[in-house]
Amino acid sequence: MEIMDLVRTRKSVRTFDGRALSDADREKLMQYTQTITNPFGIPVEFVLLDAKEHGLSSPVIQGEQLYITGKVPKVPYCEEAFGYSFEKLVLYAWSLGIGTTWIGGTMKRERFEQAAQVKEGEMMPCVSPLGYPAKKRSLKETAMRAGLRADKRLDALQMFYSVDFSISMQMDEKIVQDALEAVQLAPSAVNKQPWRIVRRKNAFHFYVKHSLRHEGMDIQKVDLGIAICHFMSVTNGTLQFDEPELSKNADTEYIATVVI
Ligand SMILES: Cc1cc2nc3c(=O)[nH]c(=O)nc-3n(C[C@H](O)[C@H](O)[C@H](O)COP(=O)(O)O)c2cc1C
What we know:
NADH Oxidase; 2 domains; globular
């Protein structure tokens, strides 16, 4: 599947059919994880965790047998790096018909961290179940999606700007339209879509608009890593750190720039 097909069709999967991943799919996924890099240059180590063996579950997930997580060194930009690399895995899994759900909150974190052997100086921002989607979503999942308005996204006018935060972005070129659609459709914690972009010529400056409180780890910076992954996967742009001078609200923080 092409990248736009993947981002348009991917949805979080919380109801699985109970089958274990085939050996072939498991092998493909693990091989793929070895090839994943991110433009932040921070390595993410992926770990597969058998649910039964480690007593792992999430109250919103049903029918899963396997989880995957990743560990990153606690350094600046580790959340964004994790978001970027883990989303690569999510999209690849979807291309094989394997469902995932980013989970940063609805889990017993200590149990997952123990199973993944997270060490001092490392962070395990999120986990995901891996499995084949059930034919029908559970009632809990259906209710949860409705509560999150999971099939809705903010309007482009509220997220994408030109020059500064007062002018909505013109989206003339097809590649820019696709890239911004890919950002718009990205998964985010509590579906908050905290990414904001200001375009200046061929430079797309990414910001996070904070709306969730955080301690220790900033989950919305993981969302930014995901958004940048989608944008760069469509445009093949390059990542730079080049914060423009512009006035912004106190809740808005510069992350990085993608030049196309
Ligand atoms: C960083 C991150 C953390 C998330 N944490 C959870 C979680 O703890 N539990 C959960 O059920 N979904 C979680 N989600 C999934 C979002 O709720 C979901 O992506 C969003 O509602 C949009 O739905 P979609 O993924 O089907 O497009 C998380 C997503 C992201 C990106």
